[in-house]
Amino acid sequence: MSTVTMYSTAVCPYCVRAEMLLKQRGVTEIEKVRIDLQPEQHAIMMERTGRRTVPQIFIGDTYVGGYDDLAALDRANGLTPLLTA
């Protein structure tokens, strides 16, 4: 299974929803990068994604986007193949 990295904060309902969806698809481990605890990571996240909000999700080296992007990928049946690649 591919490595999942998620930029998040402690109080983020979309981060919780993204984590729930990923776990429903069989992900057992998510590498969480807490930008509220590591402010320097916020700049890195913005540089990598061009976005300011959380969650920002990477599956392996593939940038997925935020929760809405993740859910759309799942609805299009693209999430599971990406996770198992």
List key phrases describing it:
4 helices, Glutaredoxin
Molecular structure report:
The protein is an alpha+beta fold. It has a single domain (4-84), classed as Glutaredoxin. Helix content is 45%, strand content 21%. It is built from 4 helices and 4 strands, in the order βαβαββαα. The chain has helices spanning 13-24, 39-49, 67-75, 79-84; strands spanning 4-8, 30-34, 56-59, 62-65. The protein has a 4-stranded mixed beta sheet with strand order 2-1-3-4, with helices on both faces. Strand 3 and strand 4 (62-65) form a beta hairpin. The longest helix is centred in the first third of the chain and has 12 residues, at 13-24. The chain starts with a strand and ends with a helix.
SSE inventory with pairings:
Elements: E1 4-8, H1 13-24, E2 30-34, H2 39-49, E3 56-59, E4 62-65, H3 67-75, H4 79-84
Parallel strand pairs: 1-2
Antiparallel strand pairs: 1-3, 3-4
